[in-house]
């Protein structure tokens, strides 16, 4: 069980394809790891091990045949619960998947269950009144962040080699940074449809993984060929062979400087990229109206939630209340109802302008580097959904100081776990590139993985 937990998805699938292990043996080993680790970490919202074992016994085919996998509990999967972290949907069983989940099945992945998320993916910590608290395996008193905290905690601890994650403003990259994983966010329109969307097409789906090749292979298996994102990426399977112009900056969208340990990791990343032969250029930080963009993000989320609340009122025969939605969710809806009627349209205009300016900024470089998160992994309760709205918004602005602009601009980005702080917690280095340049980022990631390996760096609570 321990030996298997140290293998990435490509290596596990290779064992099955060579006949050295069966898919069922891989799945059973993952179930044992989950049963051993889950009481401490709580990364799973639900599971169906019986269905997973039955599918594995049928000897699935595909490039990742037999590899155990988790889906974030925002995405429907046939026959499994999809609660979205909300008590209102605790009994919601999905009847259908999507073109995206069909691709996952075709790849041969075995979905064991659903990973935890904040309610509707709103907050950057995976703590809900429905599921309880997901712990960071590096320090159980700390948050795995969010909203893909369950996915990141599961992969970091070795339950599964990779897991689905989604990102509307940093929710792949921030948990990857907090848990010491590789977190890649494809650009807008790159993947086949998940059947879900946020206004302005902010949402991206992909995965968190221990290795670059797992993420690269899954991207090739789920990308939309012939879509609007440009030529297909395909399977990027080797390091980049050219020199890059890499711009770097350190201040967040809100104008904040990173904590000293994070700033030190940025300096080390700059030095490493220089050693690899790239040209590093100190760039002025991209300038945006941070408070306006923050208001826009929360207004867009609140508008969608207001529609959900109205729909459910008709179905329930009563208004949605505190027994259904968390305090933060309800307060966000109340706040939005009190805003001017043109708030949503103004948010969309501000996003259009910010996205254009970020894309223009990226045009000046091959890749742009900054920290993933400006602060250390925070204590559980810091982003509890029971805190007041203003406190949560201010703390979210601090946490997600770098990542949302890439969703707005529709560009690919990644968090790479190159270094750790003096206290041992992981620090992510964030790279972004122009639209259509996923292959450039992945090629750079392979280089970084070879130069500063992280795959054997494990948290204190793990299967190793």
Automatic annotation (TrEMBL):
<comment type="similarity">
    <text>Belongs to the amidase family.</text>
</comment>
<dbReference type="Pfam" id="PF01425">
    <property type="entry name" value="Amidase"/>
</dbReference>
<feature type="domain" description="Amidase">
    <location>
        <begin position="25"/>
        <end position="442"/>
    </location>
</feature>
<dbReference type="InterPro" id="IPR023631">
    <property type="entry name" value="Amidase_dom"/>
</dbReference>
<dbReference type="InterPro" id="IPR000120">
    <property type="entry name" value="Amidase"/>
</dbReference>
<dbReference type="InterPro" id="IPR036928">
    <property type="entry name" value="AS_sf"/>
</dbReference>
<protein>
    <submittedName>
        <fullName>Amidase family protein</fullName>
    </submittedName>
</protein>
